[in-house]
Protein 1
Amino acid sequence: MPIELLDDGRFHLFTNSTSYVLEPTAYGAVRHLYWGARLNPGTLVQALTESIPHSIGTPDEANVAFHALTLECPFYGSTDYREPMFAVQLANGTTAMDLHYSGYRIIHGKVPLLGLPSLRAEPDDDTETLQINLDDRRSGLRITLQYSVLGNYDVMTRSVLWNNSGSEDIRLTRALSAVLDFDESNFRIMHLSGAWARERGQSWHDLSTPGRLVMESRRGTSSHQEQPALFVVRPDTTLHHGDAYVFHLVYSGSFLGFAQVDEYRRLRIGLGIHPTGFEWGLAPGDSFQSPEVVLRYSPHGLHGISQGLHRVYRERLIQPAWRDRVRPIAINTWEASYFHVDAKSVLELGRQAADLGIELVVIDDGWFARRDNDRSSLGDWVVNPAKFPHGLEPIMDGLKSWGLQVGLWIEPEMVSPDSELYRMHRDWCLYAPGREAPLGRHQLLLDLGQKPVQDWIIETVTDLVARYRLDYLKWDWNRPMAEGGSAGTSAGRQGEVGHRYVLGLYRILETLTRQFPDLLVEGCAGGGGRFDPGMLAFTPQIWPSDNTDAVDRLAIQGNTAWLYPPSSISAHVSAVPNHQTGREVPLTYRNRVAASGVLGYELDLTQLSQAEKELTRQHVQWYKSHRDLILAGEYVPLIVDDASDQAAWMFWNANEGRGIIYWFCRDNKPNQLSQRLVISDLPIHATYEITDQDSGEHFMAHGSELRYRGIPLLRFFGQYKSRVWTIAATSPHGRGLHTMGS
Ligand code: DGJ
């Protein structure tokens, strides 16, 4: 069992490769003692209590210098002066607390979080949850720190529950999900930051001086600008070697993540709901639950991190119905017709798609009410009679009769001021009473914290799905939150609006996905503005960016895959010149980039030449016969570096010892030394047959040669050149993966 209580009151949380040691103390501090490579329990007795400044000495109840300690649950109003995990204001306006450890519980499995998505445990899993209770006797506030260890996945989670068991109101003014102190800072931080159409670039930081690094979203969504994740690695950690840690927040609203180096050069990491603008009232008896943070350590570098997250997200976060389900190849109307989509264009596109082997037609924005541009009609989810004079039913029936699945775009959390919905229910919008709400893309947000609004969205979407027998729904969200208030919320609860919005969204998605387990909902937010684990729990695939340029997509998709499995990353082949960058990239290259995730198309197929159609048909066929590997295999990054002139990855079926290797030249430079593609992580005690998918040429190579020397690339280099090889072990020794199980 992965949680043990040691003789001296410390808890050892462990998996095959990790140990995490913490100690609740009588004086209210929960000390963080260790997180890293697995320790033998025999060594835990003495090794872990040394990291206290000489000037302070051992703390006890009479000498409590919290700032001297490495902590799990630091709070404002104690003698810890670093960034706190939480803060409260009591009924008399003060912020001080005297926390006392009041007991623990170890539970088999996981405890569901109130109103929030989280990793699941199944009955036979090697999963346990530790709950540690801390009480402030005077106010009656109880804090329950919750740690789950998912032994089969080498992953841990943390969350916190605050409960007011006293008789007076308490206000939570900060409620992060986890704070953790390392007793050194010999690390680098990586986070994924960007902007619209260039989401998730790698940002690297040294931690050589005291201070604070903040990454955050204050936009009411997880955002294009930052991903709610922090990677902590050693200075010499590489793609496949060295210590790597990740903290990933399962949440879709504003968040704060920080890395703080203190005066002793220790590192504090914190992650949770953004405290700016946040407050939560706890009346007597009330509770507040923080979102879950997923934690993983790997001695196998960044790939060790992604490998474990992919497995646990696929198997214990994504809805079970979609876990292993084939994702249909879509044709989406957006870049083909934009707002001018109509019956004729959809049917022509559908007919062509069916002929090429494409499986799903998605009617994107523009199909409803008076939606000819982005200035009107959000909220009026009735078909546009000018574009679809006989309604959508005959269109959907026609597409289905050609063997196609059907899907629709919707942006149900929004309303245009120029809409019937707005005229009827202005009070359903987010706005501060007496002020104009700021527009974004000419639209307003609905106040999802209000139950009637949630129920209306559930009814509207239910009706659309049932009426048009939808197989798929694209759930979009095209502007950040900036309203600073809700007319439907009392004065004392305005600080709750942002989080209540997210809870409302989760309730809607939970209800709909329970009602329609076979419906594939694709998440989207103006591209990748809400690509987070909270959404992934309901939307098994997510549109990562409005940038469909194949060269830019190498970094966007490659970096998204540090956290998320390729089966969740939607990728479409679009027209050239590309609509976002003007780049002209060959169709083969565009096909292959899109075939590195959930393949789809987003261009006017009827405009392709005969040769392009033939290439597309062949590629769709090829993808269908290899997508089991791409979507369910192990993803192995080979070159994923924003500064590199190349990108490469492998999809690997460890049980069968076969895979696919993709290589892309991103930016050809003249007169360079010839290079090789090293196939990291391949089991070395086998010979492999490697087949070039362009020429059909094949060759044999030993695992050691591939892993330590690589495939020579000299003949393949060139601007926008790409290569795909299949690889198959010729003996059972080639099964598995070097880093498997860690
Ligand atoms: C933003 C999405 O990312 C696009 O794919 C498209 O659906 C537009 N919205 C439609 O308005």
Note: The chain has three domains: 3-316, 321-629, 639-734.
Protein 2
Amino acid sequence: MSMEIFGVDIGGSGIKGAPVDLERGDLAQERHKVLTPQPATPDGVAGCVVEVVEHFGWDGPVGVTFPGVVTGGVTRTAANMDKAWIGVDTASLLSARLGGRPVTVLNDADAAGVAEMTYGAGRGRSGTVILLTLGTGIGSALFTDGHLVPNSELGHLELKGHDAETRASVKAKEDGDLTWGHWAHRVQKYLAHVEMLFSPDLFIIGGGVSRKPEKFLPLIEGIRAEIVPAELQNNAGIVGAAMAARGGTP
Ligand code: BGC
């Protein structure tokens, strides 16, 4: 029997969602996307989440990702979002705006990670696995024998006196007009630092760049762990959000 739950991915530029087929770990219908309002306040974004969910006439449980720390449904940080999110009970806010439907909220990289561990590049992998999403910021999901340690926030490690995501994210590559080689060197330094701390068996690299792994993965040297691109690419967040909503609050 196929089981569907709705997943929504809140990002700095877009809010996208679709019903997810949890048997296949894929979208059950083509996703719907709306642009993130600027400023991306809780109220404005909540309206967009409602729009995405209602586009499908969905009335069951909803899982939602957020690009910051989330504990017990409360958004705690907002590095690349409006600071008004800090301290908001986002799960309750969205549930109220969605007419009382149950809503589960989790970190965006954690969502992508649980999806990859079940349906993608981390399938069947034990030991320590770290998924890193390289995008506007750097998100992380840390697993030990398939169990998630939520909100690891490895994107904010210090790298040469800087917040790591300001050096090694895709935004840093674009803002600095860096060549693939230059950027790969920074990613290598970053991975070496994460490896020093956690000695993972596997790194999974997600985010938009996971579609062009040949541009930078061959340039990365001296990392002991295996490094592979994510497989679910830009639907991982939506799928992981739906998985979290099925399982209850992580
Ligand atoms: C946030 C993380 C998030 C990552 C990717 C970082 O700036 O602190 O919570 O997972 O960006 O969106």
Note: The radius of gyration is 17 Å.
